[in-house]
Specification:
48% helix, CCB2/CCB4, Protein COFACTOR ASSEMBLY OF COMPLEX C SUBUNIT B CCB4, chloroplastic, 11 helices, rod-shaped, single chain, CCB4, alpha+beta, 323 residues, six-stranded antiparallel β-sheet
């Protein structure tokens, strides 16, 4: 009894645990090429944890979207793999052999049609269809299915998705700064322009604040009179429906395909072939007009990035005009 009690109450030996090595902040994040797509919060959270372990404050004071931009710059390859949905190899093969896949119904239908005719000729059955024969009824159904496959293949080949590619804006390069803009505000506006042209498909930027055009930069429409860049009429633009609707909603307005919107006539200062447009309110006193060269070229991250830049410009411009 005493022996069994001592055996039962004896402490079990504890296994020795080896401390896990701390991850190093290198050129790659722990997301491989074959890992499932990770949410934005997971990617940013891993980066913040790595910074905390390394004892650096690189991830402090920045929002998730700002960190994503930094991660794309420092770890561009790995971040794109982490945020990009994983493609199946079948989908990749179909994309690379689009014409062949669209021709498969024609090939199957033609082969079935030839097989039915050869079977009819070799089997010794009369060439004239006889409804009383089960073989004849099966051949008629097979011929109908074969013709249907051939027609479906012809439809697939005739209907193809339109490829979207950037265009070269037709206009004149310009850089105009409105009156009353301080040096600090001008530096902030130029920083915003450089950021947008580097990270997005932005080719034109017009900032209207306090009833005046504070910045017109990028490609602008040419004036039919002297051939120079067309000046922005801020007062006429403010009276338009695009400006009023954006300021009333106080939300970003994204026109993914500008050619489909009749309101583009209110933007004569932009190039005629501007493909996409973002109207971003700058606080309660202004708006930023961002023109792109690609249909649906601004992603959801780009839209959030532009909204953050507008908040920063509002704080800077309000101080500049109040002082």
């Amino acid at each position: 009894m005493e022996l069994s009690r001592s055996v039962i109450s004896a402490p079990l030996p504890q296994p020795t645990l080896r401390p896990a090595p701390a991850p190093r902040l290198g050129r790659r994040l722990p997301f491989g090429a074959f890992s499932p797509p990770q949410p934005l919060s997971n990617v940013v959270g891993v980066f913040r944890c790595i910074c905390l372990i390394d004892g650096s404050n690189y991830g402090d004071g920045f929002s998730d979207l700002v960190l994503v931009r930094l991660l794309q710059r420092e770890h561009g390859c790995c971040i794109s793999r982490a945020l990009r949905p994983r493609q199946d190899w079948v989908e990749g093969w179909v994309r690379s052999n689009d014409t062949l896949v669209r021709s498969v119904p024609i090939l199957v239908g033609g082969a079935s049609l030839v097989a039915v005719l050869l079977n009819r000729a070799v089997s010794g059955i009369a060439a004239v269809a006889d409804a009383s024969s089960s073989q004849s009824r099966a051949d008629i159904l097979t011929l109908a299915l074969s013709v249907t496959d051939i027609l479906a293949g012809l439809v697939w080949l005739s209907i193809r998705p339109k490829s979207i590619s950037p265009v070269v804006p037709r206009g004149i390069e310009c850089k105009r700064v409105g009156p009353g803009v301080s040096n600090s505000a001008l530096h902030e506006l130029l920083w915003a322009w450089d950021s947008l042209t580097t990270a997005t498909c932005c080719k034109s930027l017009v900032a209207v604040y306090g009833g005046n055009c504070v910045l017109q930069i990028g490609v602008a429409a040419g004036s039919p009179e002297d051939g120079n860049a067309l000046t922005v009429d801020a007062q006429k633009f403010i009276q338009g429906s695009l400006y009023k609707s954006a300021m009333e909603s106080k939300k970003q307005s994204y026109l993914a395909n500008l050619a489909l919107y009749p309101g583009r006539s209110e933007l004569p200062f932009l190039p005629a072939n501007t493909q996409a447009l973002i109207l971003q309110p700058i606080g309660d006193k202004g708006i930023a007009v961002v023109g792109g060269d690609t249909i649906r070229g601004f992603t959801s991250i780009d839209q959030a990035w532009i909204a953050m830049i507008a908040d920063k410009l509002d704080a800077t411009l309000s101080k500049s005009f109040n002082s």
